[in-house]
Fold 3-methyl-2-oxobutanoate hydroxymethyltransferase.
Amino acid sequence: MSAKKILDMKGGEPIVCIAAYTTPIAKMADKHCDLVLVGDSVGMVLHGLPSTQSVSVEMMVMHGQAVRRGADHALVVVDMPFGSYEASPEQAFETAAYIMQETDCTAIKLEGGAHMAETIDFLTTRGIPVMAHVGLTPQSVKGIGGYAVQGRGEDRQRVLDDAKAVQDAGAFCVVLEMVTEELANEATKLLDIPTIGIGASNQCDGQVLVIDDMLGMFQDFKPKFVKRFADLGADAEKAIAEYAQDVRSRAFPAADHVYADKK
Ligand code: KIV
Ligand code: NA
């Protein structure tokens, strides 16, 4: 899958994306999805960090390599983490090139609208496909004061302007995160590049969910926009509890699980 093919899916059958971090999940996603995003959400989802702000480039490279080993068909996109690209277009280019060289991913993603346009233009004119991300941008959650729906009322035009700016700068698609349905629909009509919704609208050109959220692995909290397609977290804990009980009662290992000496 190429970035151009994703771009060409604009207005057609919805583009299916999953944010994933490991080889086994990437192998499964590769059979059913168009795009696998190695999201910096990995910091919170798998590493227990309080936000995405302390995710490192090395963390993204390690998970990017793991996902790339499992994905042949789907486009692999890796998030650039907070602090690795915002200072200048040159900083962004160095980080993007490094991530692409280390992981063999096809594109990178960065957060931000109009203020990142110059950087997106700098990268795309130098051969780096960029997936943009506007609306709620978790890396700036401290600056915007929390995880809140974006683009309500007066704020609508700002988000639309951001979406238009990243398109004009050369992004091949744009994530719209936690925006109103009306805004997502309007942006989808306005733009010539695909909109990928998360907490947005089923009229977006595609959807993305975090794998652990959609599998119900993460049980503490469920944002309104998440649909749980499975309840693996509860299943996993039940299995661990049974294992603990079997070990303590010496029911495990049983005859099936042990080796006899040669007769
Ligand atoms: O980090 C992530 O998983 C993301 C998606 C939710 C868009 O940025
Ligand atoms: Na992200």
Residues 232-248 form the longest helix (17 residues). The domain at 3-231 is CATH 3.20.20.60 (TIM Barrel). The radius of gyration is 20 Å. Residues 19, 37, 39-41, 79, 133, 175, 198, 208, 210 surround 3-methyl-2-oxobutanoic acid (ligand 1) (CB under 6 Å).
